[in-house]
Specification:
By secondary structure, the protein is an all-alpha fold. It has 2 domains: about 1-35; about 60-100. Helix content is about 75%, strand content about 0%. The protein contains 3 helices and no strands. The chain has helices at about 5-25, 45-80, 85-95.
């Protein structure tokens, strides 16, 4: 085994060790660091970015629907807890309202 073979073997072992260390750190949630020891934030790939945008949009829509349902429930609660004669007056006033 020549000198160059020995150097290549040491470089290969070092690289494999670095890859294994990074994989273990990533798998168990340790921060991945660069050569200076600063934490490196992994980038979001295109598929993950699209999924994040889709989930954000869906979340926004669900919040809007929830607000609408809460408004409806509050109206139903008011109707259920108001005295019957007051509710009847309000319904009658809606029937006589101009433009309907």
């Amino acid at each position: 085994m020549g000198l160059w073979d020995f150097i290549v073997a040491i470089v290969a072992i070092s690289m494999v060790g670095g890859i294994i260390t990074t994989a273990i750190r990533a798998r168990f949630g340790y921060p991945i660091t660069d050569s200076a020891g600063k934490a490196v934030e992994p980038g979001i790939g295109a598929p993950a970015q699209r999924q994040l945008e889709r989930l954000t949009s869906e979340n926004r829509e669900l919040k809007q629907r929830l607000e609408q349902i809460e408004d409806r429930v509050s109206v139903l609660e008011r109707i259920a807890t108001d005295p019957a004669e007051r509710t009847a007056r309000e319904i009658d006033s809606l029937r006589i309202a101009p433009g309907y």
